[in-house]
Amino acid sequence: MSKTTKRKHVMKEILWDDFELPKENQSVVKVVSSKGNNLHEVESHTGEIYLASMPTKFRKNIWVKRGDYILVEPILEGDKVKAEIVRIMNKDSIKFFKENNVWPQEFEDKKVESVCDKNSDDSNSDDDLFVNTNRVNVNNYSSSDTESSSDDNT
């Protein structure tokens, strides 16, 4: 299978809208940090922090970042690496899990709720846009602008 064909199939699997509920041994975890070498430090809903490995089919095709939610399956023989990533959760799959009461209550936060509970009719909303957290948010207006305009009138 060529590289492009493999990437196409992996992306189709990730973006597929036919969601499945997690099996008994699978759990939803939150990515805490990336440790390199396709290992990610994750936090379970109980607060336990451990390493999860990314399977070969996702490597160089799918990226996860700090704060993302993923579905993992435990590795029984693992000492340090205790789980393997099964699925990367997107906002639609999170919404599906919440509707079926499978989403852990410990992961309830305003950011996930606001993304999932938004109306799909409001396509012009700026809430879906990527916000760069590495830059300072600067407003185009300030109180000094209004003061200077009132000083000019007197």
TrEMBL record:
InterPro entries: EIF1AD (IPR039294), NA-bd_OB-fold (IPR012340), RNA-binding_domain_S1_IF1 (IPR006196), TIF_eIF-1A (IPR001253). GO terms for molecular function: RNA binding; translation initiation factor activity. Gene3D superfamilies: Nucleic acid-binding proteins. SMART domains: eIF1a. GO terms for cellular component: nucleus. The keyword RNA-binding applies. Keywords: RNA-binding. Belongs to the EIF1AD family. This is Probable RNA-binding protein EIF1AD. It comes from Plutella xylostella.
